[in-house]
Amino acid sequence: SSPPGADFRPVLDRIAADIAATPGRGRPADYIPLLAEADPGRFGMAVAELDGTVYGVGDWRQPFSAQSITKVFTLALVLAMEGEALWEGVGREPSGNPFNSLVQLEYENGIPRNPFINAGALVVTDRLQSLTGDASGSLLDFLRAESGNAALGFDGRVAASETAHGDRNAALAHFMASYGNITNPVPDLLGQYFRQCSVEASCADLALAAGFLARHGIRADGSTLLTRSQAKQINAVMLTCGTYDAAGDFAHRVGLPGKSGVGGGIIAVVPGRCTLCVWSPGLDHRGNSVAGVAALDRFTTLTGLSVF
Ligand code: GLN
Questions:
Q1: Does the model's pTM come out above 0.90?
Q2: Contact by Cβ (8 Å): 270, 33
Q3: Domain residue spans in the chain?
Q4: More exposed terminus of the chain, fewer Cβ within 10 Å: N or C?
């Protein structure tokens, strides 16, 4: 296993070579045309150390659509501002259902199983909107500060396309609003949520931005975002719910808290040690990057760095 301060480049080079030699990349998300255009042959991976040193391989500086990876950051911001009260409106149990599923909501009084399925993320963004008046703007400010990349932004075409194909998310939001678990007007909330999903960021940006989860809640500038206990809570929910109905398989193969997005990115955390982000747009049928999961699997196998 790698001692602290190890140079991660050799292991990243080896992983990239293994991935390049492995056939089968899955298919890009096709629920909006813009994502369907992505080339499944692309692959990038970055590792960020606690002090902000970043190592990368392949397309690690190429911005891609962060999508559901942003759910980790909105959760952190709401937990930082409103604390435990958040858990009254959203649970912490794996759903075993697809990320955009409506089932369970009716039996559970409009309270989603966890903050990483779309229903739960809509609740979190609703709270962030109430707390800040601009959920997606406060998310972007945070990502820029933590990554050190002031050029990070939204892709307006992706957000518009999400809106045009947003019936499922609109249904989820309206259904929860009927239980009083969404407090902002649903069209406003959806606008914020789709902008949030449309963040364009690279593996380097997202690995750096997730650093507070490896630093037990401490931001890049040394200030405290979360208590140690809250950082642990987020890592735990990532481990159990971060890859939807594949979370058990992801934990089995990778053994790290992780969060995927349908843009093909996955972030992962080695608490106390480093953060990772991998990107390859080809997805499996559960919406997780095929080469991304394979690369993280190789990383923990080769380095021995896992939470187990
Ligand atoms: N924008 C997507 C949606 O809400 C995000 C889903 C995802 O990345 N899993 O459907």
A1: yes
A2: no
A3: 9-303
A4: C
State the Cα–Cα distance between residues 220 and 105, nearest whole angstrom. Answer: 37
pLDDT reported for residue 1: 45
Q: Ligand 1: which of 31, 67, 116, 241 to mutate, judged by most atoms within 8 Å of the beta carbon? A: 67
118 lines ligand 1 (CB under 6 A): yes
> Is the CB of residue 264 less than 8 Å from the CB of residue 25?
no
Is 31 part of any known ligand binding site? no
User: Would you please indicate which residues are annotated as catalytic (active-site) residues?
Assistant: 68, 71, 193, 244, 262
Please tell me the distance from the alpha carbon of residue 6 to that of residue 20, in angstroms, as a whole number: 24
d(C-alpha 153, C-alpha 22), whole Å: 33
Overall average pLDDT of the 1-15 stretch:
79
- Mean pLDDT of all residues in 234-242: 97
- Can you tell me which atom of ligand 1 is nearest the CA of 68? 8
**Letter for the amino acid at 140?**
L
The mean pLDDT of 129-143, rounded to a whole number, is 98
Torsional class of 180: left (φ above 0), alpha (ψ -120 to 50), beta (otherwise): left
Q: What is the ipTM of this complex?
A: 0.93
Amino acid at 279: W
Beta sheet of 199-201, edge-to-edge order: 64-65, 199-201, 153-154
**What's residue 107's pLDDT?**
85
First-to-last alpha carbon distance for the chain, in angstroms, is: 13
Quick check: 106 pLDDT over 70? yes
Arch. (CATH architecture) of 9-303: 3-Layer(aba) Sandwich (3.40)
Q: 107: how many CB neighbours lie within 10 A of its CB?
A: 7
Give the pLDDT band of residue 4 (cuts 50, 70, 90). low
What's the CA gap between 232 and 217, in Å, rounded?
Answer: 8
Q: How far is CA 57 from the centre of its chain?
A: 20
Provide the angle, in degrees to the nearest 10, between the axes of the packed helices 9-20 and 290-303. Answer: 140
pLDDT number for residue 5: 58
Task: Give nearest CA residue, ligand 1 atom 10.
Answer: 100
